[in-house]
Amino acid sequence: MKKIESYLLLLTAILGLPLIILLLPVILWLRYSKAGSGPRIGVIVSNRWPYRLQYLRLPYDLAIWRAGGTSVTIAPSDLPRLDELINDLDGLIITGGEDIDPALYNGEPSAAKLHNPERDKLELEALKILENKNLPTLCICRGAQLLTVYYGGKLHAHDPHPEKLRLHASSLFRLAGHKTSISKGSRLYSIIEKEEMLVNSIHHQAASEVIKLNISATAKNDGCIEGVELDDNSRFLIGVQWHPELSAPFNKQQQKLFDALINAAKGF
């Protein structure tokens, strides 16, 4: 079913090419008009279809631009010069996309439906480089899962649980969303300034065991881990399981995540 939905997503993207062409001037303006005038935020994207459509990444560009930054694309092909690229950045976003390879956390092989080893390698290397830097980093959806795995945690798949799929997994035919509780005292709470918020949900994997990270948010209905962050106030390293970039244009709480990233990047 997931492969069918991937092909449908690709077909939808092809049919939407006229809209993409129409929006291209906006995309280019957001990406390059402010080059050099604000913090440079690296946006890691996929190299595979249909996830490769993230190269367009208008929602990320818009959220970064509104916060006063400028975005820079990083793809798996950039691995050989990743250290050089990161040295030229003020902040980083690890975006959503494919599954994390279960081999990285001793998970069930059946969970590896759409994993991308090249991207896993790139992003794990990025997090390794960041160990020696204080580069502010926001990890979104897949990014939050990868952050969990990098620090020794584990993931679980919602696939065997229809009720979890209904709550957390969106598709072309159905949009999922739920309320999430934000932990008081967390960095996430200091940004959102709310104990509860409604989030979109587009995932069928999530953190099941967290090590060296604090849990900053959980789904109210089933306790699914929705937010993780490093237990170190000197570093801005936050992961959220939802997609704030999709809601940020009309939801100030979601935009606050990008505002906080840019403010931290200015300090960096």
Can you describe what's shown?
There is one protein chain. The mean pLDDT is 85. With 268 residues, the protein is an alpha/beta fold. The protein has a single domain (77-267), classed as Class I glutamine amidotransferase (GATase) domain (Rossmann fold), CATH 3.40.50.880. The chain is built from ten helices and eleven strands.
The CATH topology turns out to be Rossmann fold
**Which spans have pLDDT < 50 for at least 5 consecutive residues?**
none
- Strand percentage, roughly? 15-25%
Instruction: Indicate the radius of gyration in whole angstroms.
Output: 17 Å
User: Strand tally, please?
Assistant: 11
**Can you tell me the CATH class?**
Alpha Beta
As for the number of domains, it is 1
Termini Cα gap: 44 Å
Short descriptors:
single chain; 268 residues; alpha/beta; Rossmann fold; two-stranded antiparallel sheet; 10 helices; 11 strands; globular
Outline of this structure?
The chain is an alpha/beta fold and 268 residues long. It is built from 10 helices and 11 strands.
